[in-house]
Design a protein that fits this description.
Elements (H helix, E strand, L loop, with lengths): L6 H16 L12 H13 L10 E2 L18 H9 L34 E6 L2 E6 L4 E6 L17 E7 L2 E7 L19 E10 L2 E9 L8 E8 L13 H15 L5
Parallel strand pairs: 4-5
Antiparallel strand pairs: 1-2, 2-3, 3-4, 5-6, 6-7, 7-8, 8-9
Length: 266
Amino acid sequence: MRILVSAAAVTLCISLVSVSAQTPAWRPGNRSMTSAEERDAAAKAKTLPFKPRDLSGVWGLGTNGFNLDQRAVPPMTPEGKAKYDAAKPGLGPRGVPLGNDPLMICDPVGYPRSFTYNYGMEFIETPGRTLQFFEWGHTWRTIWTDGRALPTAVDEPRWYGYAIGRWEDDTFVVESNGYDERSWLDQDGHPHSDGMRVVERYRRAAADTMEVTVTLTDPATYTQPWVTKTTLRLNPMAEIGEYFCVPSDEEIFRQKMREPAGGVVR
């Protein structure tokens, strides 16, 4: 029997899954915080002493995430526009039932798209390197802080690029390149080339506040740098949870939802 499912139903289903995954604030034992506990923790976080060069803690989980500023998207080059037109997202104003978002086949999300999900992020600082840990995909990103220079070329492109970091007064500056061009920058399908370079600036302005500026430069894809500024809030009681894209689950979702919505009959 043919099952008909509308594109709107698929979009709603995906959206509900997305929202449900964004709301928990994980604690020991995976017990969700009550609203009152969240308010108390947030109020306390504002008054905690802090060191400007200490970026530890979980930022963004259950409060606010980071998204590339869609109002600031630069004009695309012909090459960039061709890639953008070929992208078929599963969500948003350009969403279609049978999209080609790499996320739907459990490819690594890449960077900075990992930063565009409201699933929480934290920094772990160690001698010689800082680790950026994302809940989405339970993924580590290495930022070298041992004084090495950013290489002019990377032997093999990487989903999360090659990154170095340094402190400039109270601001942690991260430069990166060597990105695998198969990843998207956001769920709308904005592309990039393997020549993309990203500069991030993190400044802890208060105990619970981190100011972030991300500048993306990719002359092969965009005619100007793409600059995004945002503010992340500390979630003082949170732990990064385990959130994976599981190929077997994605295949079941494709067969039961995406294919019927796209008119595919098995």
